[in-house]
Amino acid sequence: MLNFNFQNPTKIHFGEGQISVISKEVPLDARVLLVYGGGSIKGNGVYKQVIDALSEHTFFEFSGIEPNPTYDTLMKAQEIIKRENIDYLLAVGGGSVVDGAKFIAAAALYEGNDEGINAGSDPWDILAKQQVITKALPIGAVLTLPATGSESNGNSVVTRDGIKLPFSSPLVRPLFAVLDPSVTLSLSDRQISNGVVDAFVHTIEQYLTYSVNGKVQDRFSEGLLQTLIEEGPKALLPETKENLEVRANIMWSATMALNGLIGAGVPQDWSTHMIGHELTGAFGIDHARTLSIVLPAVMKVRKGQKREKLLQYAARVWRITEGDENTRIDKAIRLTEEFFETMQVPTRLSDVDLANKDIDLLIERLGQHGMTALGEHSDITLEISRELLTQAL
Amino acid sequence: MLNFNFQNPTKIHFGEGQISVISKEVPLDARVLLVYGGGSIKGNGVYKQVIDALSEHTFFEFSGIEPNPTYDTLMKAQEIIKRENIDYLLAVGGGSVVDGAKFIAAAALYEGNDEGINAGSDPWDILAKQQVITKALPIGAVLTLPATGSESNGNSVVTRDGIKLPFSSPLVRPLFAVLDPSVTLSLSDRQISNGVVDAFVHTIEQYLTYSVNGKVQDRFSEGLLQTLIEEGPKALLPETKENLEVRANIMWSATMALNGLIGAGVPQDWSTHMIGHELTGAFGIDHARTLSIVLPAVMKVRKGQKREKLLQYAARVWRITEGDENTRIDKAIRLTEEFFETMQVPTRLSDVDLANKDIDLLIERLGQHGMTALGEHSDITLEISRELLTQAL
């Protein structure tokens, strides 16, 4: 096991009916900005539950945060924050809304970083120059879409001009998160699919690397993968899709997949995500669907480097015990692809109408964004990324 | 899954050499009381590492906290706290020292609870009248013995006149905990055995109940049990006992076993602990050794109530797939007993020279302490406790 530091103070309120706790979690004297997306929360009853819980609070609203939230949209929130002296953000939505709220929270109090040679007070520097933030507005979250884990971590991804830029700080980790699985019943099949696949690949990125004998981390990851494999498809089947236990298990898995725990003390990969981000940026493909396209190719091309963990994955997650090593690994990769197909997501670039000619642009962008040494060994060069994308055709 | 609220803000510093972080974690202007036990930390180098890290801090010492820390010992710390205006406790030791520091921290600022009809300012009320505390001194912990999970939870057990009394508050949860597995190399076999068994039974108490389809919690628990079964015996074998990876996996398992995570959203039992506490109180048996005696009896006597989970435990933890249901359950119980025997702890009352005649006293004490409705169904009466103890003869 590698040395690690781990802390996750986000308070989780899990279960049906828990949205009402925000009346107590948000300080009564706070000036709250309710931050949400396209308005689906008004159709599914979540908005009303939130408003009811805030009946004694002073709050304002900022809506319109899009999937893959953009810098331009998020900066529009600064006006109401200044005008109304907002001092608390309540994000109500999926990962994009929570990610967006994090950038809004950081930008609102950004004064530049005196210590950096790139000092300046433009919030854009948080993303473009990776300036460390020193303060942020407090955030609470009501999660409506289990997927990104953003509700209990300090990570955020913001898009500008088709480029996805991450930032991270413990200061923007939500103070509390409400996870009510019944809220997810109104999601489309596509949203559920994307969420399950996103959580699955988050787990894989922290698990399928090389062994450091972190037995607890490995088994926790395997437990999440098995749970997502079992429960994900049920959330799409007519006879089980309304089952709240299925939704609860998916929701808790997605949070645990990226709250820092399973990745503490073990190497991490994230090459699938970095390459996937370019697919979203260049071609507008849903985040999770870029992952289901790239991951099988990573498993195939990096079979040598990931051999030991692929065998463990085959044995423990898929219960494959027959055949020689290569046979077992190949079967595990095939079953992973079949799981993605069951989840109705693409596993090939051709499934989203991309071809060999499109790879050049992706490689060019990876180069522009400094993604020239990816993976747990930092040895996935642009040449290997090209090999991965070619494999994924 | 049951509804739940979960929060664990303790910052974990895990790995060899991490003790030095206390120089930054403990505020420089704090007046620190270093709290420890019988002085073993002076023999194994931990004391020196701590002192070195505190070279720029103002600190005082309070030692002599015994296993199963007593109220009388802990109250002696109040004098130095008042005299030296102590405002920070640094607990260096195992679960007893951390538990003791928690009571010291609560007692130091206890002013009684105005709202209770039993209001008063005697710290004894925290234990005897279960008065809710409203403040406590901040605590940091350097763990030397992986076992109780006390380093990242809000629980404490204090003994007075042979009676073990628990209290719990998020206010006494350590702000940070240093877990350096190399520190555990100086422990005796008996200390390691007890720690592994304690962590194992903590997990079982939150797992072996009835199913609420909490798939993540179940798999996390199973992962901890498997890890302890694999690594525990290695920590006793001459050829592997010095292996730091073994120690690291045991240490992280013990923390995860009782930091609140695996028990969130699932029913919990704790009957083995409650009955075990009386064995310690009445006959001075090591805590873990009371658990290894009581648990197999609970599994046997409560086979009907725990049937579904016992079958899952047999299949997933012990990989038992052959035979009818009773055969599989019986085999799992037998393997549990064999695991305890490998860990060199007793599994029978007769192993610690207790006999049928001693059961009356235990039942009497359970009655005195209100332990008349134990277990996940609150249906373990004194009569059933007697049956359990008779089974354990």
Can you walk through the features of this model?
Two copies of one chain form a homodimer. Chain A is built from 16 helices and eight strands. The model of chain A has no long low-confidence stretch (mean pLDDT 96). Chain A folds into two domains: 11-182, Rossmann fold, CATH 3.40.50.1970; 188-391, Dehydroquinate synthase-like - alpha domain (Dehydroquinate synthase-like, alpha domain, Up-down Bundle). The relative contact order of chain A is 0.11. Chain A is α/β, with parallel strands linked by helices and 393 residues long. In chain A, strand 6 and strand 7 form a beta hairpin. In chain A, helix 9 (215-234) packs antiparallel against helix 10 and helix 12 packs across helix 16 (382-391). In chain A, strands 1-8-5-4-2-3 form a six-stranded parallel beta sheet, with helices on both faces. Strand 1 (4-14) of chain A pairs antiparallel with strand 1 (4-14) of chain B, so a sheet runs across the interface.
